Amino acid sequence: MYRIYGLQLLMEDTWKRIRFPDILRVFWLTRITAQATVLMYILRMASETDSFFISWDDFWDLICNLIISGCDSTLTVLGMSAVISSIAHYLGLGILAFIGSTEEDDRRLGFVAPVLFFILALQTGLSGLRPEERLIRLSRNMCLLLTAVLHFIHGMTDPVLMSLSASHVSSFRRHFPVLFVSACLFILPVLLSYVLWHHYALNTWLFAVTAFCVELCLKVIVSLTVYTLFMIDGYYNVLWEKLDDYVYYVRSTGNIIEFIFGVVMFGNGAYTMMFESGSKIRACMMCLHAYFNIYLQAKNGWKTFMNRRTAVKKINSLPEIKGSRLQEIDDVCAICYHEFTTSARMTPCNHYFHALCLRKWLYIQDTCPMCHQKVYIEDDIKANSNVRSNNGFIAPNENAEEAVREAAAAESDRALNEDDSTDCEDDVQTERNGVIQNTGTAAEEFNEDTD
Ligand SMILES: [Zn+2]
Ligand SMILES: [Zn+2]
What we know:
GO terms for molecular function: ubiquitin protein ligase activity; zinc ion binding. The protein is mostly helical.
């Protein structure tokens, strides 16, 4: 839920205005201080010694008792969330200052952590449990919360890491804090899961914590790998054509693993719901998880993959200039202003670019960056000629999506039949032109919609 900024911002604002957290915090802290004083007094009476200090065991009991009674009702759980909010807020600010990030959006840790804590408490029915069970449940929730906070911190460090490596800043003092935090983000989850596995038998909770930890470690590895790639690129200072590919592969591997973890966590949640504790809140959370972490991620990943594939296809259809002709044109790439070292791609409008630069451009736009003519000339010409032969009349296209699907089918058919389709070329050609014309209008319609 916290990824929808619009609603969240509204809630956050209202939340701040009524100063509800402050009231809760004061209430909770006052209550706990009062309880601590009373308990201390009782302990002193019971032990009958004059010493001011109490023993370590007594102290530990006292803390446990305070924590148990600190979450014995929904109201006290809210108070506890408010206290967690302050801690998380200052922790977040501290880390942001340490890594030198100015991202406003990343200040939300003070909001995200308590909300997560509260949802976890509701989901596990924390306040309704028996005292001794409550302490165990609370510590388990805290472990989950800790891993979630670490994931959030990774989200804060990743952009800083990327901008540092991409901007080729070479000062050690700028890099060290981010690398240090990244190292901590790797070591902490390893330590946490090691300790937990040492003390507990496997159950759904331990499984969830471990999965979160492993996922975090993998995310850190992906970030650091991309960082290293960019640093190597910056160090050698020549255009590294394959860099973009490598970064893409590393990132998509990371995303695929994250997606798999999302599915596994969903399975774990479903198991918990069926065999351990099924509640409406858990069901809601699982729906949210399925939507954000599984559905949206798969959708975005697929979209990126398709964009990339289309762009590569377009580039490959353009003539490649190499060797002596490359020296003849003696030009620079109009996108990055670097010289052509090995090869250049020529657009139908006679402009030259690096294949890599042009590909990045084609993710966003279909036209030449210099003159805004269509880059993907082959099919456009056919479509245009078709339109001309119809005296410029374009049949109104009622079902745009249908046309796109047909075109996609035709596209794949063509890819399959590319080698052996000479005898029925003419028939196919006319059919294809019809489809392409449809696609042309459909694309225009889409463009209008998106504009
Ligand atoms: Zn270039
Ligand atoms: Zn051009």
